[in-house]
Amino acid sequence: MFTIAVLTFKETLRRKLLLLTVLLSAAFLVLYTLGVRAASRHIHDLAIRDPLVATITQTQLLVMGLFFGYFIIALMTIFAGTGTVSSEIESGVLQTIVTRPLSRAAVIGGKFLGLGSILVLYACLFFGTVVGIVHYYTGLGMAGQLPALAFFCLIPVVLLSVTVLGSTVLPTLANGIAVFALYVVGFIGGTVEQVGTLIDNAVMVRIGIVSSLVMPADALYRKMVAVLTASTTDPLAAVRQMGPLGSLSEPSVWMIVYTLLYTGIALLAAIRFFNARDL
Amino acid sequence: MPAIVTENLTKLYGRRVGCSNINIVVAEGQIFGFLGPNGAGKSTLVKSLVGLLRPTSGRAWLLGRPLGDAAVRRRIGYLPENFRYHDWLTGEELLSLHGALCGLSPDERRRRIPEVLAMVGLERWEKQKIRSYSKGMQQRIGVACALIGDPDLLFLDEPTSALDPLGRRDIRELMLRLRARGKTIFLNSHLLSEVEMVCDTVAIISRGEIVAQGALSELLAPAVEVEMEVEGVTPALEAALAAGGRTVRKSGRTLRVAVQDRNEIPVLARRVIEHGAALYRLESVQRSLENLFVDVVEGRH
User: Fold this and answer.
1) Rounded to two decimals, what is the model's pTM?
2) Minimal CA–CA distance to B151: which of B181, B107, B172?
3) Cross-chain residue pair B80–A92, CB shorter than 8 Å
4) Which one of A141, A185, A225, B175 is most buried, by most CB atoms within 10 A?
């Protein structure tokens, strides 16, 4: 399994998709830094006149940066992972690998580990950079950075598990479309849940919960935002977490447990389907 | 212990038969030829044996272990018919990958990689990426990958399809050297002349079923073929020549008749004369695998 993981890691590193993502991310972070720096000058003045607006602005800057990271890493996970098994079945590359003395489970595990490592590494770097930029220029205090980082890293992990599962049963293109559609369902449902919480609409909230059960990635994002911007002594916490990119309705710890189970089940299903599949 | 044993091995694709009730025994240290027309089920059987396909029913053993045993795959090498590899790797990296998957240590890989490269004639190409290789070179590196673990049992599916005549000769000689070292080779090939040159035993598959199998010498020996150049062949003459169950094949003025006994040869000459035809040439030739193949597949064996 480790050999497959290293192979997948190296293969992903040399792909143009990764290079493009890194370049786009770098471009975004440069612009983001300039924007945060420009905003920070006003925030410092605002903090004296209107601390509420200053706080909201700081938080929204942080959330915007993290939202871009969430979006980019979701896309990168889907596009990098969509053909991880199916494209090699289609091309025939897997034929000589699977006939070696390793189980098919090891093949799936290795691919998941190799690709997941790069995605988690990217998530860590992006998260650390955005948080660092905001803290440096605005002085925003952030609680729970480590748990928030863990949730942010779990986003590509859960998406990758579904993508790998799809890759064992669907052709590459169909898998990409299917997983992207799932991601959008989760994202829109999450937004609907936020609005529903704001206007106290139970139906909208339930829609959001169901969509989170279908695809928990958005719930992980909301949890991350909530943890990062929360403070038990800050009466403005609820206000700071507002907005469509925020987390007015914080997912419970059971959603995290569910997400871990969801990921495990998806991987087990991927192994089961791959085991039964003729190549 | 036989290298391969199958017992009613069957693979169905829905209602379509891939291969059906395959019963073969391949002894160790042999080169076994597996022949059949396109779509007969050759690759289906090979893929079922190496673990790419799940058999629908039946059983098989490879090197004494039941099908599906992961550990025995350490002693097996496989070259697929449609060989594809990670083309961004160099030849050396690809062999290192497969060596690692076979469980070879880094030291063992360092020693083994130059050996297999030399076996397949790619010594100067190991640093080039696979994508820069010609099709023939890719097939050679595929053979090298199959050999990297020094397997006891080798499955080669059309191993010379992309090679020029010199390359084919090299691979044939390699197979003979491997057999001399006690290796067993299961060879799928369309090239009957190649099979005739290297195989000890053959099986012929048609429409998913084995229609003939045995030692090559035994399959070809009983039959002698008589080739005659005859002017004025009539249906009556053909029927007379075919009397007694002989197989007659006509191509223009050339008739090929399979006989069981050399004593039948003068009888054939007499029949031609009696029917008023003109006999210009008569010679006996050893029956070829191609003729056996055609006869068997077309149901005349």
Assistant:
1) 0.84
2) B181
3) yes
4) A225
